[in-house]
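BUG: 3D viewer hangs when loading the predicted structure for this chain

Environment: internal workstation, default settings.
Expected: structure renders.
Actual: progress bar stalls at 90%.

Input used:
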Amino acid sequence: EKFYVILDKTVFYPEGGGQISDSGFISNTNCKLQVTDVKRIQDTIVHLVQLKDGKLAVGDNVEQSIDENKRYKTAINHSATHLMHQSLRDTLGTHVEQKGSLVTDDYLRFDFSHNKALSNQEIEHIECEVVSEIYKSTDTQSKIMSFKEAMKLGALAFFDEKYGDDVRVVFVGSNSIELCGGTHVSNTREIGLFKIISESSISTGVRR
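Structure tokens produced before the viewer hung:
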């Protein structure tokens, strides 16, 4: 049986900003629920669950456990996405803007504005820049600040999203500064390895 569960507080990351949601379990002495997807609907975080055992009632106290390995591998790919975005802008020009992304525990996908295919030399340069940032072992930082202050710092903000007065700014590596609500590694060395395995056009002026 599948249904939705809303909790007063949650440790589960809801799908957003290109990053997939956490998965894991919600349980107590009376039941065990497997969380397969988590979404934010307006201001409410909703968990899609499958009942594995027992019975859940409104008002129950529950324990939450996320798949830590999935969360960590997704964070690795999310931090790598930020480093690649910065390297794309450094290599191709500041006209490069993020047009979409998908960050999973297996891989990352990134769509960006650019009017022609990347050469092998450009791809190699981007890879080398990201790998260099990984080897620098730079600590990741996140700060809550006003939107205006973030813009003064040069933080990147895309997707035509609506931002509040205060935003979360994430600093990855030497130069990447982005508005982001996702999960990230604490140090770039945790990324370990970065390799671009494909590059193509998805529409006029947008590469993947």
